[in-house]
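Incident review: delayed structure delivery

Summary: a single-chain prediction request sat in the queue longer than the usual turnaround. Root cause was a stuck worker, restarted by the on-call engineer. No data loss occurred. The affected request and its eventual output are reproduced below so the record is complete for anyone auditing the incident later.

Affected input:
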Amino acid sequence: MEIAQLVIEALKFIFPAYCANAVPVIVGGGLPIDLGRNFFDGKPIFGKNKTFRGFLVGLAVGTAVGLVESIAFGYRLEFGLLLSLGALFGDLAGAFVKRRLSIRPGDMLPVVDQVDFIIGAIVFSLPLSLQFAWWWQLFAAVLVITPPIHLLTNFVAYKLGLKNNPW
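Output delivered after worker restart:
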């Protein structure tokens, strides 16, 4: 498969995860998933920026996008749900790691911030992704194209006043 086509296929495939990851920035707030509690090390589990509202609305939007893609591209219905769940849990895992490293919510941890949600989406969708004969190329493309896209969209969100920092 040529590179341009692979990039297009990768973007189509991962789009529900992108949406699930982006929506909490817009609609987040409210009750933190960790309920403001600390881990046994005395640090927050996830931090105040990881909220039930953001998680649930991100899951709903990502799943809805996946539903549209299943109709438009013939993907299995479960893809949107699995990609979205994976993206959100991957993001939580990244937040958990950042708190253990004493990095405050909103502060950057290079690489982890750009790929945690993608790793989660890939892991959760792997059983269904094997239907693609070129699944490993698809995953590789997603891992290569996501960091610059993520940095660009975060910068735009910062300029629009949706985020407190440009990363």
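Verification: The longest helix spans residues 3-27.
Action items: add queue-age alerting; document worker restart procedure.
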